[in-house]
From TrEMBL:
Organism of provenance: Arenibacter arenosicollis
Every Calcineurin-like phosphoesterase domain range: 45-243
Protein name, UniProt field: Metallophosphoesterase
Annotated spans, Disordered: 299-333
Matching InterPro entries: Calcineurin-like_PHP, Metallo-depent_PP-like, STPP_CPPED1, TAT_signal
Length: 333
């Protein structure tokens, strides 16, 4: 368990998180048949932020501060950052110090740009991570944190390190075979319904940029679900792609969580160089209810001008400076 004890800007929205109706006692109240008696059906509440890009975005610290302030005002089970947090160098210590002002449990996911200037081991040491992929339980749910930061070089899997991942897409954003086997065994060991969190996507949104390992990961997920009389893996969350989207594959929900900061549009298209910046920090609060519901309370902003539409960016219709509110049910078998 990666419970980290290490360690300015106004936000436009004051949306409150409504309490979900919680059932107690009977198996019928659940989306699955628990293997152990559960006294109460308690929801799990999570603060989720990803792709802050401290050091690349000049106001990354301010965007993180908005999140930490809001998360600290709520009763959450934990917060998590989904990768591309900071460069993991001395200049980013202010980012870690701010992150660690949060008093509750907090977790890290490794993103590719966290290794732009350091090795993976150095990034892990900076974040205080014992393992680059790991799992933990919270309430009625099991959480799996994965690491898609491997390249294929000369037929071998190698860690991302010092920006070595700027190679052909087919040979990067990979999950190594040892981790695939670990995932299989980890899912076999738990009776809880499971949420998988990664930096890179395992679905098909924006085809060509999802992890090339997505088929292997999804096979493990499908096999785990087919072996049980309940839906074991119910959802996957990722960052990395800086989009706001949702897909549903073989009864599993896949959520693309938008960046806190910007969308990379390339030179000539951005409001700040190659970046189409969001006016406000965006993040989300997740509520997982074992009776069968996932609720996302997202933050909404807009693009700074000139916007991608004003710049005639070819992908402008698909871009959003928000994380959508969503309420989805996960399948009951």
């Amino acid at each position: 368990m990666q419970n980290q004890n290490k360690g300015r800007r106004k936000f436009m929205s004051n949306i409150g998180l409504g309490s979900l109706a919680l059932g107690v006692g009977t198996t019928a109240a659940y989306a699955f048949a628990p293997k152990k008696e559960v006294v109460a059906n308690n929801a799990v509440s999570i603060g989720f932020i990803t792709d802050i890009h401290h050091g690349f975005c000049s106001d990354g610290l301010e965007r993180l501060e908005v999140f930490i302030k809001e998360a600290s005002s709520r009763k959450l089970d934990f917060i998590i950052q989904g990768g591309d947090f900071c460069y993991a160098t001395e200049e980013s210590q202010e980012c870690m110090d701010l992150w660690n002002t949060y008093k509750g449990e907090k977790y890290h996911v490794l993103g590719n740009h966290d290794m732009d200037k350091v090795t993976k081991k150095e990034a892990m040491d900076f974040f205080g991570m014992e393992k680059n992929y790991y799992s933990f339980d919270k309430g009625d749910f099991h959480f799996v944190i994965m690491d898609g930061n491997y390249i294929m070089k000369d037929g071998k899997y190698e860690d991302y390190a010092n920006a070595n991942f700027y190679i052909d897409q087919a040979n990067r954003s990979l999950v190594n075979p040892e981790q695939i086997e670990w995932l299989k065994q980890d899912l076999e060991k738990t009776d809880k319904q499971t949420i998988i969190i990664s930096h890179q996507a395992f679905d098909e949104i924006w085809d060509g940029w999802s992890s090339p390992s997505r088929f292997a990961v999804r096979k493990v997920i499908d096999d785990a679900n087919n072996r049980t009389d309940y839906q074991k893996v119910v959802a996957c969350f990722c960052g990395h792609h800086h989009v706001d989207d949702h897909s549903y594959i073989n009864n599993v929900h896949y959520f693309q969580m938008n960046s806190a900061s910007y969308f990379y549009v390339g030179d000539g298209y951005g409001s700040d160089g190659s970046r189409a910046m969001y006016k406000d920090s965006i993040f989300a609060f997740l509520t997982l209810d074992s009776s069968g519901q996932i609720s996302i309370e997202g933050r909404k902003s807009s693009f700074m001008r000139p916007t991608p539409s004003e710049k005639n960016h070819p992908d402008a219709p698909r871009l959003s400076a928000s994380i959508s509110d969503r309420n989805v049910n996960f399948k009951k078998k």
